[in-house]
Write a structure and sequence with these properties.
Blueprint (H helix, E strand, L loop, with lengths): L5 E6 L3 H11 L5 E7 L2 H8 L6 E5 H7 L1 H6 L1 H4 L3 E6 L4 H7 L6 E4 L4 H12 L15 H8 L4 H11 L4 H8 L3 H15 L4 H11 L3
Parallel strand pairs: 1-2, 1-3, 3-4, 4-5
């Protein structure tokens, strides 16, 4: 059991999902829910008076409130790690979220344990997949050297995250369907993942386009 106490703020305009998320996190003794707010204005007010470790924010709430409010509170957010949860698992949604300072993107399809692990990880400021921690290295170099992901596989990752089927990817890249299937198999094996949602999070962290 992780004994590191982590204070969390939940930001979600959807009351039902916010309460469900709060109930889940409260089952972990090292998590303290410091606040449960409906929008970024309430978040800004709370953070102006309180320090927290993790801000857990719903993507639709974030996008609805807009970048202006969010960026104005950048100085208070600098003291916390931001995890965004999105109901969309495609790259269009990810590109929208790039204007905000978020450290991790998870989808609502993610396993609850993935969220718990991510909260524990980011609260310690550990970014195993973040390219910013490898000064002097390009994203291509990190993907190639650490994960053995080729340029072609990067293209396929991007297309999968855009929602393309294997048939559509084959048509776009002028390769056979079997070739695409083999690439998908190799990508999932190299990244040690099983689901497309996990691939979306990986793509978000490396800004694959």
């Amino acid at each position: 059991m992780n004994s590191h106490i982590i204070s969390i703020v939940i930001v979600d305009e959807h009351l039902l999902s916010a309460k469900a998320l709060k109930a889940l996190l409260m089952t972990y003794p090292n998590f303290i829910i410091s606040a449960d707010v409906r929008d970024t204005k309430e978040l800004a007010l709370f953070l102006s008076k309180n320090d927290v470790d993790v801000v857990l924010i719903d993507a639709s709430t974030l996008l609805k409130d807009g970048a202006d409010i969010y960026l104005r509170m950048k100085h208070v957010l600098s003291r916390a790690r931001v995890i965004t949860i999105s109901a969309e698992n495609n790259q269009i949604a990810m590109r929208k979220l790039k204007q905000f300072t978020v450290h991790t993107l998870l989808t609502t399809y993610a396993d609850p344990l993935s969220l718990v692990d991510e909260i524990n990880r980011v609260s310690r400021n550990i970014h195993r997949l973040s390219p910013s921690n490898r000064e002097g290295q390009t994203i291509d170099a990190i993907l190639s050297e650490e994960f053995k992901i080729s340029r072609r596989e990067q293209e396929i990752i991007s297309l999968i995250c855009e929602g393309c089927t294997s048939n559509q990817i084959a048509e776009k890249l002028y390769v056979s369907l079997n070739t695409v299937k083999q690439h998908r198999k190799h990508i999932f094996r190299k990244l040690k993942i099983e689901k497309v949602q996990q691939l979306v999070s990986f793509s978000f962290k490396f800004n694959l386009k």
